[in-house]
C-alpha cells in the first residue's frame, strides 16, 4: 500500500493507495472435555477463507506482498485468494501433584491463488506441527526445591524456492526458480529444550540457579538454501545448534 513509485522525472506516486482491505472468514468447530480434575482434551477443526488478497496485476508474478518477493514497482489489485484449514488436538495435564504436561498436534494446509488461477503453497505450509511439554517440582529438604522442565517441537520443514543452478552459475550468486513457488520443502524441524532450576528459600529472599539447554540434541535445522560458489552446489544455511544458558537470580 505504501510502496512509492518514482518515474524518470523524479515524480513519486503511491500506485497502490487505492487497495482495499483483505477480507477473511473463519469457520471453527471446537470440542472440549474435562477428562478428570486435572486432565483436559480439546479438539478443533477450522477453515479460513481469504479474499481480496493484494497480488500483482500480472499473471507471471506469483507472489502476494504478504509472502515477500514483491517488486516495489508492481501494481497490486485485490484479486488474490487464500485458504487455510486443518485440525488441532490438545491433551493437557494441569499442574497438580507437583507436575504438568501438554501434548498438541496440528495438521493443516495453507495455500494462496494469484491472478493466474492456480493454487500455490504458502511459505509456512509445513503441514504438521507436534508439541510436547512438561515439568515437575521436587522438594529438597525444608527450604530447597528442584524444578525440571522440557519441551519438544517437531514440524514439517518450511517451504522454500528451488535454487536455479544454471542461472546461479551464470550470475555467480544464488538465483531462485520463481515458476513454482514453495513447491520444495526443507528437512523437518526438530528441537528439544531442557531446563533445571535450583530454588533456595531464605527468610526474605529466594535464590534461583537456572540451567537452560536449548536444542539439546544439537540438531542443525535448515533455515534456507543457497548456491555456494565454493562447492558449486546447493547448500543449506543452518540455524544455531545447542545453546546452554546458565543464570542466577535473586528475588526479594
Overview of this structure, please?
By secondary structure, this protein is mostly beta strands. The protein folds into 2 domains: 18-125, no CATH class; 128-252, no CATH class. The protein has one helix at residues 165-171, and strands at 5-6, 12-13, 23-34, 39-56, 76-96, 99-113, 120-121, 128-139, 144-155, 159-160, 184-185, 189-201, 206-214, 222-228, 233-238, 243-251. The strands form 4 sheets. Strands 3, 4, 5, 6, 7, 8, 9, 12, 13 and 16 form a 10-stranded antiparallel sheet that branches. A hairpin with a 4-residue loop joins strand 3 and strand 4. The longest helix has 7 residues, at 165-171.
Strand fraction equals over 45%
- Overall geometry comes to extended
What's the domain count?
A: 2
**What is the rounded distance between the termini?**
50 Å
Q: What's the total helix number?
A: 1
Number of strands: 16
SSE sequence, one letter per element: EEEEEEEEEEHEEEEEE
Sketch the major β-sheet.
Answer: 10 strands, antiparallel
Radius of gyration: 25 Å
What's the pLDDT, averaged over the residues? 91
Poorly predicted residue ranges: none
Helix content: under 10%
Question: Main attributes?
Answer:
252 residues; mainly beta; 2 domains; ten-stranded antiparallel β-sheet; 1 helix
Compact description:
The chain is mostly beta strands and 252 residues long.
Layout of strands and helices, then pairs:
Layout: E1 5-6, E2 12-13, E3 23-34, E4 39-56, E5 76-96, E6 99-113, E7 120-121, E8 128-139, E9 144-155, E10 159-160, H1 165-171, E11 184-185, E12 189-201, E13 206-214, E14 222-228, E15 233-238, E16 243-251
Antiparallel strand pairs: 1-2, 3-4, 4-5, 5-6, 6-7, 6-8, 8-9, 9-12, 10-11, 12-13, 13-16, 14-15
